[in-house]
TrEMBL record:
Single biological process term from Gene Ontology: regulation of nitrogen utilization
Catalysis: reaction(s): [protein-PII]-L-tyrosine + UTP = [protein-PII]-uridylyl-L-tyrosine + diphosphate; [protein-PII]-uridylyl-L-tyrosine + H2O = [protein-PII]-L-tyrosine + UMP + H(+)
Protein name, entry field: Bifunctional uridylyltransferase/uridylyl-removing enzyme
Domain (ACT): residue spans on this chain: 734-816, 845-926
Uridylyltransferase: region residues: 1-375
Regulation of this protein's activity per its record: Uridylyltransferase (UTase) activity is inhibited by glutamine, while glutamine activates uridylyl-removing (UR) activity.
Record's keyword annotation contains Protein biosynthesis: no
Entry cofactors: Mg(2+)
Amino acid sequence: MAKHETAFPEILDVAALKARCDFIASAHAESRDPMRQALLAAFRAANLEGRERARKLLLDDGSGLKCAQRISWLQDQLISILHAFVLNEIFDAAHAPDQTRISVAAVGGYGRGTLAPGSDIDLLFLLPIKKAVWAEPAIEFMLYILWDLGFKVGHATRTIDECIRLSRSDMTIRTAILETRFICGSRPLCDELAARFDEEIVKNTGPDFIAAKLAERDDRHRKAGDTRYLVEPNVKEGKGGLRDLHTLFWIAKYFYRVKDSADLIKLGVLSRQEYKLFQKSDDFLWAVRCHMHFLTGKSEERLSFDIQREIAECLGYHDHPGLSAVERFMKHYFLVAKNVGDLTRIFCAALEDQQAKQLPGLTAVFNRFTNRTRKIAGSLEFVDDGGRIALSSPDVFKRDPVNLIRIFHVADINKLEFHPAALKLVTRSLSLITPALRDDEEANRLFIAILTSRRNPELILRRMNEAGVLGRFIPEFGKIVSLMQFNMYHHYTVDEHLLRAVHVLSRVDQGKDDDVHPLAVKLMPGIEDRTALFVAVLLHDVAKGRPEDHSTAGAKVARRLGPRFGLTPKQTETVAWLIEEHLTMSMVAQTRDLNDRKTIVDFAERVQSLDRLKMLMILTVCDIRAVGPGVWNGWKGQLLRTLYYETELMISGGFSEVPRKERAKHAGEVLFNALSDWSQKDRKTYTKLHYQPYLLSVPLEDQLRHAHFIREADKAGRALATMVRTHQFHAITEITVLSPDHPRLLAVIAGACAAAGANIVDAQIFTTSDGRALDTILITREFPVDEDEKRRAANIGKMIEDVLSGAKRLPEVIASRSKSRKRTKAFTVTPAVTISNTLSNKFTVIEVECLDRTGLLSEMTAVLSDLSLDIASAHITTFGEKVIDTFYVTDLVGQKITSESRQSNVAARLKAVMADEADEVRDRMPSGMIAPPQAPRTPVAARKARAES
């Protein structure tokens, strides 16, 4: 029978299954195949019923560890009964001599007596020296039954000598055998392996094993992202996950020679409270993992967005003001992951002390000589222990709690790592961080010195956060520790995002990464108040998770904390303003038309001073870059730089007062002169093609490219033409489309891009004086190599031409693309439409916010065309699963949309599209439009007036 610490008869009626097997054996004694099929049916039913009972018990009692133990016990019973059946009924080996019997043992995670619903079953079949002829065929028969039952079985068949020999050279095998647990068969054989393994492998090799396991852990963390704060964490392999707890258990079992982790309390490695934390963390992570496996029906280890909400519901989380149930669940998850990190640090400190005590006499003397502690200049509380800061005495923090902050400051200025024992005592002294310490002038001075350090403030702040000091010293920060935001945009928890933002600012401050964001690096030396900027970057999201807007609430927090930190009233107000406006520059740059002067005027009125503009620019860069990999790109950088330079001109009074008509006339003359190698006739023809908006907003370099492009298309007699240009630094690709003008043109182009898998980020729409459209579409870059990107863009251009010419039908190509892409069903975004006539002097601005999906932009632009609206420019911004699209429109005679009833109709039609109720829109999309429309949209004079406006 299986030997498990606890029996769970509620999971499986062992006697009933045995009786069923006896019946099968007698009923099919003469026929092997029917016996096998009946056996499979009996075991399959027992397994499914047992696992279903385990699932229901998990929902009832919530204990993940018990669930894993129940499934492990169930597996033991199935294997034991199968083993007995095979030996007794298949191979007639029930009475074989003891010295010929095999032993079946669980190894790896299964060896610990825990098993997740979808986990592999790791088995070791131990062979005796005198191997019976039936041994290996019996093992093979058992394995085939287990495989046919759908189990993923990892197995090895070895003698004890082979196990010992392989353990010496292979650390993975050594770890697996460390956790060997007898299931059935010959117990003496399993006991002999355990005794020899302990004596021949484990004895005196603790340090080697520890080094190997910790190196393995570090490598695993690097592969998983090297942070425990990824918003879709790997529960098993990720930092702070189950494997980290398992590593602690392996090391404890190997180094301290203990069989139960509770023995670590007796050895003084963990306190009773820390051991309870170990158990609670283990139980919680097992609960999450078991629920994941039950929900997905497979060995799913990544806690992805699409199952987080269901797991939260299974675990009993509910919505609270400011935090949804899933966000509360994930905050708990990350706090547990942080606890696992704390336990690891405490455990490693104890290990280091223990290893130092166990060193042989002469080695210990040499070690103390080479790594002896040294005094640190200007500090009596701390010493340098081999490049790591350590405590001069155990009561350093009790004597003066300010030392809980000072230790990090001293480590920073002396570029020291932290001794694990010092951090362990820091964690155990958190109760000393009281209101009195938070208000202490010296403690706050030291903290600001750490934050504004010119070395590596992010590293020190991270150590403070991991030790629990940062959240205790700044309770407002403590509230967002381990807080996640349930969306696809933010890759990290809020505290991790803020620390990464400080890291970006520190690199900007040091003049690094100027190839990524050159303007920020250029501006930083001119910042009058570094301290205010650093404080704003650290606190800009500190009020996330509250019912009110986090920018407004964050400004209130800053006004409270500023005086405490020793900031002047002016500095405090600067920090508060930066936090309140920290999203403004990004939103204006990405969702507004930067060629519209009203955009710049409004933004300049909000900023008011050049110093604020500089700081807001740098804060915006740090914020976007710290969101996650791939979020920042050169196109966003270019938009921010454009907004900065235009606003700088406005604030410094540098805007030209020359009338628009005269500036447009001058731009036309510049273009005419630049085409000096053309004939006089061509120069006049192609210069007169363009209206004021084009001449004033498009750079001369692009005007020249467009002129050559249009002339070549005309010479070739092409009504449709596309031109491609890549921008590697900006991470975008530009596709210029020349086509007969048409009210649905942008809708068709957007649909063709969606069908080709291209993500549009901006669109400029110009009409030429001869009734053609010259549209520039900017899409996100996909390939790093220009040649590859140009081929991709050429294919997209071909798709646009095919759809416009009718060679391909738009609804069909969009439908094929939609089927191949996964919808973001895990998220909900409340559709919103905002229509404003105050954001531009010439256009009505329509802003749409909703859940993104393939073909959405095409459908929305089609609706706007249906409503007889002319789109002058479109700006598309994606924040993970959410999209914000902004359209600058007029009616067909170039006027704003002022009628309230018409505005309501526009909003209602767009909301219908956002709710995915626009099948009729897709069905009405034209399949091609090479020919101009039968009747012009407007009289030529009206179209010209609209273009000139």
